[in-house]
TrEMBL record:
Record organism: Drosophila yakuba (Fruit fly)
Keyword Transmembrane helix: yes
One GO cellular component, as annotated: mitochondrial inner membrane
Protein name as catalogued: Uncharacterized protein
Gene this chain is encoded by: Dyak\GE24854
Presence of keyword Nucleotide-binding: no
Subcellular location: Mitochondrion inner membrane
Spans through the membrane: 60-81
Family: Belongs to the cytochrome c oxidase VIIa family.
Keyword list, A-Z: Membrane, Mitochondrion, Mitochondrion inner membrane, Oxidoreductase, Transit peptide, Transmembrane, Transmembrane helix
UniProt GO molecular function: oxidoreductase activity
Length: 89
């Protein structure tokens, strides 16, 4: 019984880095390296925020979103002005 508890504690106490170091590179899935490449692309220090690092489509969607938000804010300003200033007859 004592050996079982030691094995359980040791399995939780062992870091992932030590356990993964024992796995041969041939046994690691191909998708792991593709994910690592994508992670490196998004973590690159190039001064861009992460939501613009994907592609040109990300940049276009960002600009459209900002433009629509500004149009909405402008429309709200016009509405507040129309409701607060009485119309002249």
């Amino acid at each position: 019984m004592m050996n079982l508890s030691r094995a359980v504690v040791r399995s939780f106490a062992t870091t992932a880095g030590r356990r993964s170091a024992a796995v041969p590179k041939e046994q690691i899935e191909k998708g792991y390296f593709e994910i690592r490449k994508v992670q490196e692309h998004f973590q690159k220090k190039d001064g861009k925020p992460v939501f613009l690092k994907g592609s040109v489509v990300d940049n276009v969607l960002y600009r459209v979103t900002v433009a629509l938000a500004l149009v909405g804010i402008g429309g709200m300003g016009k509405l507040f002005y129309d409701l607060s200033v009485p119309k002249k007859e």
